[in-house]
Amino acid sequence: MTKYLYHKRKKMFTKTPQYIYQRRNGWFEIRKRVGGTIVYWGSFPTIEEAELHKAYYIGKNWKVKPRFKANKHIIQRGDKYVLIKSIDGERTIYGTFDNIEDARHERDVCMKCNWDFDLIVEYED
Q: In the prediction, which pLDDT does 92 show?
């Protein structure tokens, strides 16, 4: 199946590179099927950044560990970033932030505290 990327400014479609897929939120992720399993290699805000990382992985013959999800649990909504975690099928919002750096910092704190609200408050005091 051929994938296409829509460019708003140019008002045209172009083919997306192999292994790069666009999410609904506009970010681009690198995925590759390895032994019947789809392996996730990272998500990036621009297609250029995704292509750069894909070239790195190809240069290493895909023999590196999949990239840590730099923005795992962070969703962009408009100009804000929302920190969301699903626990037992229930989505919990841990905060809304103006920039990605603050959202990443809070996500790291939450991960260190095992997503427990009580521990998170004590950690930051």
A: 87
- Kindly state whether residues 50 and 80 are assigned to the same domain: no
Whole-angstrom CA distances from 64 to 56, 67, 87 are: 10, 8, 29
Domain-located, residue 8: yes
Residue pair 95/103 in contact (Cβ under 8 Å)? The answer is yes
Planar angle of CA 29, 38, 112, nearest 5 degrees: 65
Print the domain residue range for 36. Answer: 4-59
pLDDT at residue number 4: 61
- How many domains are contained in the chain? 2
Q: Is the pTM of this model over 0.85?
A: no
Question: Could you tell me if 79 and 50 lie in one domain?
Answer: no
Looking at the predicted structure, is the pLDDT value of residue 7 above 60? Answer: no
Burial of 26 (0-12, 13-18, 19+ CB in 10 A): exposed
Q: Which residue has the tokens 């994938």?
A: 3
